[in-house]
Design brief:
mainly beta, 6-stranded antiparallel β-sheet, 1 helix, elongated, 45% strand, single chain, Jelly Rolls
């Protein structure tokens, strides 16, 4: 049989999109990737390797004998003092304003339940501290930058509350053991008074009592107070989100907004007046104007997370961080969404994150789980505390214009920023099968003068078999240096079909 005539076909892509694990790899746009790992989604020029993390506590908390950092909060007192509060096991610490080694002595005056969330909020120059366990009546407490004492100035109205939030100059509390569907609010401007009951003072209200759900989180987005209620049974899969609208409790109305719940209060994040919710059904944004799904591009991978109970949210500049467990119960992965660009990335290797907070200077601090419990500063440095960061970008499965025709790869070009010297390893898949060989190409200054961009030509093996789809994978795992890839171009010899 005579050889079939070939034509050379090109496919190109600029790396302006992001991670998309929801669509089949052959249906993606060329600017998207089915496996985009450790790239910064906020860089609009292409795919740049993310920054790493450093140890903010050069050492680990052990006095509380906990298995993870169960609380983390940053606040500034009226005199300018900064407190980074961290809970670990049965101990609570004020770590101060700067990185510290070793951890200071634990604060006295609290009864902290180990491995239960410690939720904190600042109001009236106090840090209000909640650590209920659903059964006992410990707390809440207040910390005034020098000592800890009981929060309530009188009475026991919110003893044992699981959490609280600040909303329109009142401290709201939830999770009081005897009333798990009731929310409580303080006198305006006074987080210590939950006992002076009147329309313009303190009070409480049930949020759709006896509906089979209990409050499991509450956060304010400024205009709206969002209340999550989750089914009281073990799986906690059913639930609802309610919005509390109005300027004061006396004139507020409660409306059911969504037929799903937040996973926990740690899975609720106020982003500039929009509430971000990680739920059993996906990641959503809620506002007075409606609901939007944010997790569409990663939805199938999100739903496949085996245990979502430890998911927590945080923020760095325009990014929403969502730490989750790829397996087991430790949050060893982070989905990162740039809210302005709408790009998702997946971070691997930056610690088993259990809690997140922002330092008053805006930097992102994270508390870890599993083994030694540290506080890390994220987006700091070129490596993960000395370890290399594995950058990965895969193209879609490329059909070169016709999925029915056989083709053999010919050339692959990478357009990248010349940042000095770095190596990209190129691998390829033929019809989804990873080939055993790979090619490493070093991007370095080729001549004197400022060379901002370089294009590297990669010749593909002529011995490759015929395939319907070809996918390319770029990797880098050096311990330092910038990596920024703008785009790629691929060429293949496409054979004409035969009868």
């Amino acid at each position: 049989m005579p050889a079939r005539p070939n034509s050379t076909v090109e496919e190109t892509g600029w790396l302006s999109g992001g991670l998309n694990t929801n669509e089949p790899t052959h249906m993606l746009q060329n600017n998207q990737s089915p496996e985009a790992q450790n790239f910064d989604p906020s860089n609009p020029l292409g795919a740049a390797r993310r920054k790493g993390f450093t140890e903010w506590t050069d050492g680990y908390g052990s006095a509380g004998s906990g298995t993870f950092v169960s609380g983390l909060f940053g606040g500034t007192f009226s005199d300018g003092d900064i407190a980074i509060m961290a809970a670990e096991g049965t101990a609570l610490y004020d770590l101060g304003a700067v990185a510290i080694d070793p951890w200071p002595s634990a604060l006295s005056g609290t009864t902290i339940t180990a491995n239960e969330p410690v939720r904190m909020v600042m109001f009236d120059d106090f840090i209000c501290i909640f650590n209920g366990d659903g059964a006992t009546t410990n707390g809440p407490y207040k910390y005034d930058d020098s000592a800890i004492s009981v929060l309530q100035s009188s009475g026991s109205t919110i003893d044992g509350a699981l959490g609280g939030t600040l909303h329109k100059q009142r401290l709201y509390a939830w999770g009081v053991p005897a009333n798990p569907s009731k929310m409580y609010w303080s006198e305006p401007g006074n987080p210590e008074d939950f006992h002076t009951i009147a329309d313009d003072k303190a009070g409480s209200e049930n949020v759709f009592i006896d509906d089979g759900t209990i409050i499991n989180g509450m956060k304010s987005s400024g205009d709206v107070l969002w209340v999550s209620k989750q089914s009281a049974d073990d799986d906690g899969l059913e639930g609802n989100i309610f919005g509390v609208f109005g300027n004061s409790p006396a004139e507020s109305t409660i409306k059911k907004i969504a037929h799903f719940s937040a996973i926990s209060q740690e899975a609720m994040l106020d982003y500039d007046g929009v509430m971000i919710i990680a739920s059993p059904e996906g990641v959503f944004s809620l506002s007075g104007r409606g609901i939007a799904m944010l997790s569409r591009d990663i939805q199938s991978e999100y739903l496949a997370i085996p245990d979502k109970s430890t998911i927590c949210l945080g923020r760095h500049q325009n990014q929403v961080w969502m730490a989750y467990p790829a397996s087991g119960s430790n949050n060893n992965r982070v989905f990162v969404l740039d809210m302005a660009l709408g790009r998702w990335s997946k971070y691997v290797g930056n610690g088993n994150i259990r809690m997140m907070t922002n330092h008053p200077d805006g930097s992102l601090l994270t508390g870890t789980a599993s083994g030694n419990n540290y506080i890390h500063k994220q987006v700091d440095g070129e490596n993960d505390n000395g370890s290399g960061i594995q950058f990965v970008w895969e193209t879609p499965d490329l059909s070169f214009g016709d999925f029915s025709k056989d083709k053999i790869g010919k050339l692959f070009f990478v357009h990248a920023k010349d940042t000095g010297s770095f190596t990209l390893t190129m691998k390829r898949y033929l019809d989804g099968e990873l080939q055993s060989d790979s090619s490493a190409y070093t991007f370095s200054v080729a001549a004197a003068g400022d060379i901002d961009r370089v294009v590297e030509r990669m010749v593909l093996p002529s011995t490759d078999r015929n395939s319907k789809f070809i996918r390319f994978r770029l990797e880098n795992e050096e311990a330092g240096g910038d990596v920024l890839v703008y785009g790629w171009a691929a060429y293949a010899n496409v054979a004409e079909p035969t009868r």
